[in-house]
Amino acid sequence: MSRILLVEDEVVIRTELRRLLVRHGHDVIEAGSVEDASADHDLRAFDLVLADVRLPGAPGTALVGQCGGAPVVLMTSYATVKAAVDAVKRGAADYLSKPFDHAELVALLDHHLPGARPAPSALPDVAPGASVPAPSAPPVPPTSEDDELEGMVGGSAVMREVFARVRKVAPSEATLLVLGESGTGKETLARAVHRLSPRRQLAFVPVHCAAIPEGQIEGELFGYERGAVPGAISARAGLCEAAEGGTLLLDEVAELPPKVQARLLRFLQTGEVRRVGATRARRVDVRLIAATRRDLVAMVRDGSFMSDLYFRLRVLEIRLPPLRERPGDAVRLAESLLRRRAWAMGRAPLTLTPEARAAIAAAPWPGNIRELENAVHRAMVLADASEIGLELLGLDAPPQPPSPAPLADAHEGEPPSDSLEGYFRRFVLEHQHELTETEIARRLGISRKALWERRQRLGIPRPRS
Ligand SMILES: Nc1ncnc2c1ncn2[C@@H]1O[C@H](COP(=O)(O)OP(=O)(O)OP(=O)(O)O)[C@@H](O)[C@H]1O
């Protein structure tokens, strides 16, 4: 069991996070501010500190350097991401941009938690979603195996090719376009590229373009001068500048409005950023990785994505296959997750029954690795015995004999059949006219990013206001 200090002033969020961490076997001590945390506790007595950046009084970044060897993981909104990036440069272990999924947080903490662990050489796996290497983080075990790279698990032939390509493109400075359905691991791959690149010591800044309101995205990315955008009481650097020397990931790049696409193209052509309202541009040294689940070629054809930008983005390209096209990887990932979670929780490893393995391999996993992770986590929490069967995973037995053909086109775009998705659809359709996206996400217990993704996947676009 690890001892985690959680510093968050929003009681609802703090309670939710505490429950999550306790469910994962951690001992959680809470504080509403840096001052309370320092007054009430010995900051050096924790295995890890998880703190919001924006707090009443001192910011969460003030904890960096005060917690002995414990890694400090920061939670940040777009408004404070620059402060978080700076804090990582000063020794914070990592940061997570809000909104984030519970699975993302758990994976990140697993990666950074030290404590009573086996020696690195005995570790079963490398944590997924691993981020900026931290001075205080435990060393990541070497990844010499062909079926694993920087936290990415996958022994199928197609994933081995992806790994080979990642190794090849990482040292390059060229822009990389990562394509793949939601949850296939695009951000994870981008982090792997960053960690294998000469920029690994500097910031990795992921930006989820679809989660930033359309009216703010230009200022968030490129910064602004005082008074240039509503509410700009002082000049601010954008996320491009925050990533100086490091790597900027533009996730869901296809969602950028045309005006921002044009500005991004200019940035790629000149290597210079001009803040909104500024007359002078400044040179910024950033490697850009763009990711999308959309068909950019079709978007270029119908005029919704600039062709010049598309060609600038896809200097290098990597396509991540959906999980249903690599059933062996689904089982490999599930077993790797079981081992890693058990290790993080100090529990004996759980195993899958033969039926569960067959069902995992045969399931379509429309939400890909993220959906598989959620199913495995849920099963682990509910498991009483040392084996996990079909029921705990919420899967049906595969047809007998199991179909050898990949379950190629049984998902995207089709009406959802399972009851959770049915509930999601009903809830969103019933409430979307009176609730904001943030409220809907909160009531459903998911992040805004997850809400947006599910809307995309299930074909429930946001109503125009
Ligand atoms: N190859 C992998 N091995 C192990 N875990 C992985 C792998 N790829 C992704 N994951 C895990 O799966 C989850 C989803 O990955 P990620 O966020 O990178 O996907 P994505 O394609 O960027 O999703 P989205 O399109 O929804 O933003 C994360 O928790 C990540 O840690």
Automatic annotation (TrEMBL):
Q: Which CDD domains match?
A: AAA, REC
**Keyword Secreted on this protein?**
no
Occurrences of domain Sigma-54 factor interaction (ranges): 152-381
One matching Pfam family, short form?
A: Response_reg
SMART domains referenced in this protein's UniProt entry, alphabetically: AAA, REC
Ranges of compositional bias, category Low complexity: 124-134
Q: Which UniProt keywords apply?
A: ATP-binding, DNA-binding, Nucleotide-binding, Phosphoprotein, Transcription, Transcription regulation
Molecular function in Gene Ontology:
ATP binding; DNA binding
Q: Which residues carry this modification: 4-aspartylphosphate?
A: D52
Q: Which GO terms describe its biological process?
A: phosphorelay signal transduction system; regulation of DNA-templated transcription
Instruction: Give all residue intervals belonging to the Response regulatory domain.
Output: 3-113
The segments labelled Disordered in the record are 119-149, 394-416
Instruction: Return the protein name.
Output: Sigma-54 dependent transcriptional regulator/response regulator
